[in-house]
Amino acid sequence: MTWSATARYSLVPAPGSLGFVHDLLNTRSAGRPRRPDLLAEVTSAQDWAGEALAAWAGETGQEVPAVALGEDDLDPLRDLRVDLHALVAGPAAPQPEHQAGVVLRLGSDGRVRPEPRGTGWRALASVALIAIADAQAADTWRRLKACRNLRCEAAFFDRSRNNSGTWHDVRVCGNPANLRAYRARQRSEKN
Q: Average pLDDT of 62-90?
């Protein structure tokens, strides 16, 4: 299984179930060149959700939740995506709270696992919040970021040793920004 929204930016997905959140963030119209918003219409949103849930199930070993999206699910799902993007873009104003249904199940192996609940966008929010909680426990959540290039803002997983990455791709977004900053400094030094 692959995370299709993240793959369209030629990015390596975040590890484990955090790949679901990474993929959700990359459903937006972002990157250079701009890619279409996968949550703009019910058909594309349903296609993305089916693929992402199958990938999530492959990562977690859980059953693929059956989620049917309707027109009423698109705005709340896009709102969730906007709020999550603001969190990974860096320090920001306080975000609205999000809640999702979760059931804790004791497996035959003695491990307790959270299982998503809800229908439509709420089921996807449940999967995302479970993935974030798991990533926070594993200390990988802080590595999910948004490209600092405002013309891009694709979500990426920072694999740098010291977690200092700021661009989803240094060649595509970092070099042009650094060159513009260098030229601006040169002009200001001449004045």
A: 94
- Can you give the pTM of this predicted structure? 0.87
DSSP letter at 41? S
Let me know how long the chain is: 191
Whether pLDDT at 93 is above 80? no
For the chain, domains (ranges, CATH) are: 4-190 (1.10.3300)
35/156 Cα distance (integer angstroms) = 15
Q: In this predicted structure, which of 42-51, 125-134, 164-173 has the lowest mean pLDDT?
A: 164-173
Helix (H, G, I), strand (E, B) or coil at 9: coil
DSSP 112-181: EEEEE--SHHHHHHHHHHHHHHHHHHTT-GGGEEE-S-TTT--EEE--STTS----S-IIIIIHHHHHHH
Report how far Cα 108 is from the mean position of its chain's Cα atoms: 32
Rounded Cα gap, residues 22 and 143, in angstroms: 11
Average pLDDT, the chain: 88
Cα 188 to its chain centre, rounded Å, is 38
